[in-house]
Design a protein that fits this description.
89 residues; alpha+beta; Ubiquitin-like (UB roll); five-stranded mixed beta sheet; 2 helices; globular
């Protein structure tokens, strides 16, 4: 099963887990499953049906914005990383 890596700021919403194995064939399906298990996590990642602007998602180090966005296919051996944007000065 694909693995979704959870960043430290979001771990309180995933039961403290840093990675979760989730079934699905696309990034959207993974996030749907993840959200069903951890609803508070879904609230942090999505605004309605859209991924929040400050949330970056990578499949095997490739930004999904340059692939097929949430429709990006994932294989059983893939790793999906959620990377929140950092701002400041």
């Amino acid at each position: 099963m694909p693995v979704v890596r959870i960043p430290t700021p979001l771990r309180p919403h995933s039961g403290g887990l840093d990675k979760v194995e989730v079934a699905g064939g696309t990034v959207q399906e993974l996030f749907d499953q993840l959200g069903a298990t951890y609803p508070a996590l879904r609230e942090r990642l999505f605004d309605g049906a859209e991924l929040r602007r400050f949330v970056n998602v990578y499949v095997n180090d490739e930004d999904i914005r340059y692939l097929d966005d949430l429709a990006t296919a994932v294989a059983a051996t893939d790793e999906v990383s959620i990377i929140p944007a950092v701002a400041g000065g």
